[in-house]
Amino acid sequence: MKRTVAIVALLLTVALFPVFINCKAESIMPTLAILNPGPASRPTRWNATLAKPNEIGTNSFSFYYPQTPVGSTFFINVTIKNVTNMKAWGIGIVFNNATLRYLSAWRPADHVFSYPESQGATPIAPTVSVDDYNATHKIVKWGYAYLWTDDEGNLIQWGFNGTGTLCQIQFKLIKELSPGQSVTTLLWFDPEWTSIYAFGVPSPGKIDVNMEGAYVSYSYDNTPPVIQNPQQTPATNVQPNQPVKVSVNVTDAVSGVKTVILNYTTGTTWTSINMQLNVTTGLYEATIPGFSAGTQVRYKIAAEDYAGNKAVNDNAGNYFVYTVISEIPLIVLLMALTIIGATLISAKKKKF
């Protein structure tokens, strides 16, 4: 009897397993997001300095004055993720009109409905409108659908699947900043004006989506990084051909440390090494290779923050200096040991 029950339970599990999988797959909701595309696709419409390239593909945009002056421009990607059979879209993006000004909007060449357009479909896209949202914000409204028929006039239903760009929207930074001032503004979708439509869904075909906004920060940063005096290992008595590790604490309170470089020379030509942050110690580290006995090594530390401010610690123009010591010849070492030994023996004899 127990064996029969176990077999029935196993059969039910196998039978229901695909259902569980389908339910899980169907529960994945598409996401509508505002992303940082970087300037590469339309460099003529992005003249702001992208301070942190690692923000590309995220919902963060960081700009710093004076590296990025007031009046600089950038644009956003409006992106749909994990959608099935999408047939149209409409968006309403809200922004702070004391910090940003809307300039233009367009569909890039690879937008989600570029395929039906390439096959002769007729775009249905109203003119972009920018309206007051409240006393401090405005809203950009735009949308897109298409009409596609075959040679007999029958409607062709082609839906976009996956992840792609709906449009790109250009803004200008208009906020005047005071030294040390920083502002962060949010771009977000207004649910009343934002909709995604798909085939296979009861009319009008609107589907639920997650909506993810973006953050635009603009900061006044004219303060360079602070570079403390470096430490070297070994601190003294550097042996011939012995590498020297240099460690230094570098900080920047506003935009953060972008690069730290160790520059060293044994003559007139300088060599540069990018220093790496040791997350355990919090220090930037690099290694100077070993040199022959008697070589004098001079070095200095340079740093730059994400706003383009630069600093150098060269020990007030004197540099940080060490000289590789000479090796002690073996014969000299043996003679010294012999003398020491003889002295100890002589001392013991006198004692007794």
From TrEMBL:
Entries under SUPFAM superfamilies matching the protein: Carbohydrate-binding domain
InterPro entries registered for this protein in UniProt: CBM2/CBM3_carb-bd_dom_sf, DUF7743, Ig-like_fold
Transmembrane spans: 319-345
Stretches assigned to the DUF7743 domain: 220-330
Single GO term (MF): carbohydrate binding
Pfam families: DUF7743
Keywords annotated in UniProt: Membrane, Transmembrane, Transmembrane helix
Protein name: DUF7743 domain-containing protein
